Amino acid sequence: MDVRRRYVIPGDTITSGPYRPEQNVTLVGEKKIVSTAVGVSEIYDNSVKVIPLAGKYIPKINDLVVGKVVAHTSLSWELDINSCYVGFLPATDVFGRDFSAHADELATKLRTGDLVAARVANFDRTRDPLVTISDRDLGKIDSGDLVEIAPGRVPRLIGKRGTMIQTIETATNSIITIGQNGRVVVACDDAEGLLKAKKAIRMVNSMAHSTNLTERVKEMLESGNGAPQETAERREDDGE
Known about the structure:
By secondary structure, this protein is α+β, with helices and mostly antiparallel strands. It has three domains: about 5-50, CATH 2.40.50.100; about 65-140, CATH 2.40.50.140; about 145-225, K Homology domain, type 1 (Ribosomal Protein S8, Chain: A, domain 1, 2-Layer Sandwich), CATH 3.30.1370.10. The protein contains five helices and 16 strands. It has helices spanning about 90-95, 155-160, 165-170, 190-205, 215-225; strands spanning about 5-10, 15, 20, 25-30, 30-35, 40-45, 45-50, 65-70, 75-80, 85-90, 115-120, 130, 140, 145-150, 175-180, 185. The strands form four sheets. Strands 8, 9, 10, 11, 12 and 13 form a six-stranded antiparallel beta sheet that branches. The protein has a four-stranded mixed beta sheet with strand order 1-6-7-3, with no helix packed on it. The protein has a three-stranded antiparallel beta sheet with strand order 2-5-4, with no helix packed on it. A hairpin with a 3-residue loop joins strand 8 (about 65-70) and strand 9. The protein is flat. It starts with a strand and ends in a 17-residue tail after the last helix. About 30% of the residues are buried.
């Protein structure tokens, strides 16, 4: 199925023609279809819609992302990267330069549902991004628990100079992979440490605008009694 996508804002004309308006678009006159939301327009078959960007990850070149394999063709895998866009991972990244679409079966390397750590190699908003696993420490994620947070909370989870994530990893003896798309994978051999690490990540996600958040996370990790209650109103980010 040929799908055409582009970034649009309210009032943008997406197309004119015999298309059926669906989500977040309106018909102006007899044929003109106009966006009513900020998002990515999709024209497919005889339909037009806009996928809103609110809460979704917008790819940027060199971003580390954690993608889920959703499908594959003979030449590439399609990854759900928690975005309006689909990430495309070329088969040559996995099989190497000697890859043959006739001789190599992609499902032998990555299957539907597999998690992959990748980097955004190319993206310009007019087409789905190309991702790569050619860099160090990238590729299929074989172990760990997935925790999903809002993409906008990722900087808070990392913290200034990595202080927040280092605090969590040190206290729980875990290894944490953070995707800029809001997907976090926690690997830990100790069951209690795994639970604490996941609880800390969710705590940062829900209390991102609280003051002294690093100290609150430390208290929770040291006490083991769960996250402290948020009794005060949310305040501006203190920049931890």
